[in-house]
Amino acid sequence: MSIIGTLSRAFKHLSTPLLPDDYTYLVNPLWSRRSLRGQIESVTRTTPTTAELVIRPGWGVPTDFRAGQFIGIGVDVGGKYLWRSYSLTNAPKPADGLLTISVRALEEGFVSQHLVAYAEPGTVVRLAAPAGEFHLPQPVPARIAFVTAGSGVTPVISILRDLTRRGVSSEVVHIHSYRGEEDAVFLNDLRNLSATSGSLDYTLHEWDTATATRLDSGSVAEMIPDFGQLAASESAFACGPTGLLSDLEESFPGVKTERFAVDRAGAGTTGGTVDFGSRGTASVDGATTILEAGEQIGVTLPHGCRMGICATCVQQLSDGTVRDIRNGDTFEAGERIRTCVCAPVGDVSFDL
């Protein structure tokens, strides 16, 4: 019988109008049956705009993830939890049970700016279980190619750390693009790995856009001539800006890509009122997703990746029409939709 279960039953009839979680929080803020939680153990500024957060997961949070996956983190800002997803940067099954993410403060990113500026040890955050399909196949290919740009290196650093820890002897060639060494996250880690990679045959190609043009598919083909063959055999991976990834996907069919942001197609489309039943309504524009509309009024919907991948956020649309902001596809009443990538086209409602 778990401690959580014992405490929950003990307080079941005594806690009204509060919930048992409100009391267990006083004993240990990481004990909860309503939500997965974690506590920030340390914060390290790794570049002027980036911070590494080490998080101690609470009860129920899985640490047996696959290298390359991301985790959702909910931050209390003004009494509302705002959610974003960040790639895990440590290797799976950490001996100390801790999880690590790297957060870059983006100009348009309220949550990332908040975490980099204000996160401190002891802060309790909400977590979503690790998810994502950006990981190596099994068995590990004999030759692997990575192309990363900027903070797109974060899922790959987890994969590289995992391969090194496991003593894998694959040949890995990696092109990493960044703009100026001062703000290049994990650059020293990559250089050290290139110099002392152990059984892993690791080669790093650096591409500094402060002194060179933007990286494109032509440059990738010059540095890794067999990139196309590796992509076709599910052994080529890329993570970075949308423009680069689209170029690589068009030039090298089969390359596995990871996008950190949703392309908001048709942002000028008229929005509408989103009715969440007894939980409230929100009026938003055509570029605001159903998930974001709920967060604006304190309605937290289930979600994970916020990119339309994991399907954690799926809800049935009761009335109206929504549009997938990634590609413009529309969905009508009665269909199940991904709230993290769908925005209202006129008034819509959900029976929650």
Automatic annotation (TrEMBL):
Species, as recorded: Corynebacterium lactis RW2-5
UniProt-recorded Gene Ontology molecular function terms: 2 iron, 2 sulfur cluster binding; metal ion binding; oxidoreductase activity
Pfam families for this protein: FAD_binding_6, Fer2, NAD_binding_1
Residue ranges of domain FAD-binding FR-type in the record: 33-137
Keywords: 2Fe-2S, FAD, Flavoprotein, Iron, Iron-sulfur, Metal-binding, Oxidoreductase
Domain 2Fe-2S ferredoxin-type, first and last residues per copy: 272-352
Protein name: Stearoyl-CoA 9-desaturase
Alphabetical list of SUPFAM superfamilies matching this protein: 2Fe-2S ferredoxin-like, Ferredoxin reductase-like, C-terminal NADP-linked domain, Riboflavin synthase domain-like
Record CDD domains: fer2
Listed cofactors: FAD
Superkingdom per UniProt: Bacteria
